[in-house]
Design a protein that fits this description.
alpha/beta, single chain, Double Stranded RNA Binding Domain
């Protein structure tokens, strides 16, 4: 009977593990995935308790990477569109930071590096919503340690015609940038 109770409790509560759920997409972009914890079925987050985001006043924004799986890559008909998405995401991050903080190019005290990858970007079609997945991490520029990391997949809007094929993906990027801005404001006590 005791063995049965232990088995039921193990199944019900799961085993302790620092590894993220196997549903989480892992592309190898982040410096560390092991501490990410699920916050929803499509979002994973890690915040390093050793660092206070409110201490960072300047940010280096690395070039946004775009990582496609084979199925998503097949949807890309024009690689200029990929560059436009990369530029759009970087600009959204810059806009989130510029209002209260500085974007810089050199590491130093109170400077964090923002690394972002767009993954699994889906264009909208007549029968499917567009969307994207993103991996983002903040690194302390002096120690190289991860201050925080975030992985999320999101679809947005409604199916659209060919002319608006990437608009839903852009709406997802705008949402991420807005949440990043709100997180920075909260950390700085605004």
């Amino acid at each position: 009977m005791l063995a049965l109770v232990i088995v039921v409790m193990s199944v019900q509560y799961g085993c302790e593990s620092s590894a993220p759920s196997t549903k989480m997409p892992v592309t190898g972009f982040l410096s560390d995935y092991s501490r990410l914890e699920p916050i929803s079925e499509t979002s994973y987050r890690y915040v390093n308790p050793k660092y206070d985001l409110g201490n960072y006043e300047k940010f280096i924004i690395d070039r946004v990477e775009v990582l496609f799986d084979y199925g998503t890559q097949a949807e890309v008909k024009n690689w200029d569109e990929v560059e436009q998405l990369r530029t759009y995401m970087r600009r959204a991050i810059e806009d989130a930071i510029w209002s209260n903080w500085r974007v810089v190019s050199e590491p130093g005290p109170r400077v964090a590096r923002v690394r972002t990858a767009l993954t699994n970007v889906k264009r909208a079609s007549a029968f499917r919503m567009g969307g994207a997945s993103m991996e983002m991490e903040l690194l302390d520029t002096q120690t190289g340690e991860q201050i925080g990391a975030f992985v999320e997949s999101q679809e947005k809007g409604r199916p659209l015609g060919e002319y608006y094929k990437w608009e839903n993906a852009k709406a997802v990027m705008d949402d991420w940038a807005k949440r990043f801005y709100n997180r920075l404001k909260e950390a700085h006590g605004y």
